[in-house]
């Protein structure tokens, strides 16, 4: 494995120089608005590059919505925002057909789900009927309404946010829908130094960068071109087995009631390839897999009642399972 990596480093097959410059520019623009959260930014960029949806979770006030809006702002694409509420209906998300008196025909009026990047704010506040409206568009990139099928664009990413601590008036996402999110990214509190920097920026208004002042860093065509590079990223067969062993471990662990599906293994592969590109490499290393695996797996497993009573969390269990698998040499 080490010899293969050395060979890959000496003879790169993908020109990542221009790609790296573009990613660095995006990260700089994000840092102008949001302090810290470097890992969250890396994971969000990884998911967008790998054509996956993201569930962004965090307590109120850690800039979840701002992060999602900023990520959408940096791509010069059609953007829409849906604020999920308990009274939201599926037609409010997907759209509806309206009878046209002039033509005597029914015209389809698309809802906010018809965009390139869709921010679904507080996704767990809508009832299951409305949440299920996202199933088809997340997986198939199309919506079927009144028997007619309407395709989404080539670029279609849902960035959904949810609050993990407030349960009143919320509806837990079913496992089938959670599995359609490539990643669940958790935004934690800032460190002391980061919070001081936040306060300094607010103390001096000249250091605050408004979201409206942020210019797009990527066009749709450029994003599609970057995505096409994923197929050229090399993954050693030993790393494919490494991914399979990690996923298999979730199905055999005594602390896990419901293990990860094959969709999770595919998501780990695509995410690790995107993560490698983000760091200027055209080949995947075990560290790339270990970096993305917790966010890909921890929302896809369900712990046993005994494990939950003992204080285990899905993230803690996933990290322990990764440590049990021997890293390819």
Describe the overall structure.
The protein has 329 residues and is α/β, with parallel strands linked by helices. It has two domains: 29-231, Rossmann fold (3-Layer(aba) Sandwich), CATH 3.40.50.300; 233-329, Helicase, Ruva Protein, domain 3 (Orthogonal Bundle), CATH 1.10.8.80. The chain has helices at residues 2-10, 17-33, 38-49, 64-73, 90-94, 128-131, 133-140, 175-178, 192-203, 220-228, 237-252, 262-278, 286-297, 305-309, 314-324; strands at residues 54-57, 75-76, 79-83, 95-100, 105-110, 117-121, 142-145, 148-151, 157-162, 183-186, 218-219, 256-258, 302-303. The strands form five sheets. The chain has a five-stranded parallel sheet. The chain has a two-stranded parallel ribbon with strand order 2-11. Strands 4-5 form a two-stranded antiparallel sheet. A hairpin with a 2-residue loop joins strand 7 (142-145) and strand 8. The N and C termini lie close together (5 Å).
């Amino acid at each position: 494995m080490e010899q293969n990596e050395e060979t890959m480093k000496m003879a790169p097959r993908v020109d990542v120089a221009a790609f790296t410059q573009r990613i660095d520019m995006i990260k700089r623009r994000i840092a102008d608005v949001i302090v810290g959260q470097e890992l969250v930014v890396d994971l969000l960029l990884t998911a967008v590059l790998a054509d996956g949806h993201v569930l962004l979770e965090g307590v109120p006030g850690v800039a979840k919505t701002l992060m999602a809006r900023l990520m959408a702002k940096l791509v010069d694409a059609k953007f829409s925002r849906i604020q999920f509420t308990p009274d939201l209906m599926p037609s409010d998300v997907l759209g509806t057909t309206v009878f046209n008196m002039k033509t005597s025909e029914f015209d389809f009026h698309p809802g906010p789900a018809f965009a390139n990047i869709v921010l679904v704010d507080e996704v767990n506040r809508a009832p299951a009927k409305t949440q299920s409206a996202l199933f088809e568009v997340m997986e198939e990139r199309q919506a079927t309404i009144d028997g007619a099928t309407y395709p989404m664009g080539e670029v279609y990413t849902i960035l959904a946010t949810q609050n993990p601590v407030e349960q009143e008036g919320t509806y837990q996402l079913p496992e089938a829908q959670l599995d359609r999110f490539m990643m669940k990214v958790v935004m934690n509190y800032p460190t002391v130094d980061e919070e001081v920097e936040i306060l300094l920026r607010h103390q001096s208004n000249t250091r605050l960068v408004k979201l409206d002042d942020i210019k797009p860093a990527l066009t749709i065509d450029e994003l599609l071109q970057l995505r096409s590079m994923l197929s050229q990223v090399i993954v050693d067969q030993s790393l494919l087995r490494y991914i399979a062993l990690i996923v298999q471990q979730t199905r055999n662990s005594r602390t896990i009631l419901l293990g990860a599906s094959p969709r999770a293994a595919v998501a780990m592969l695509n995410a690790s390839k995107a993560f490698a590109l983000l760091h200027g490499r055209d080949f995947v290393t075990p560290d790339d897999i270990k970096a993305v695996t917790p966010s890909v797996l921890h929302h896809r497993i369900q712990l046993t009642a005994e494990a939950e009573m003992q204080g285990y969390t899905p993230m803690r269990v996933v990290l322990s399972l990764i440590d049990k698998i021997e890293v390819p040499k």
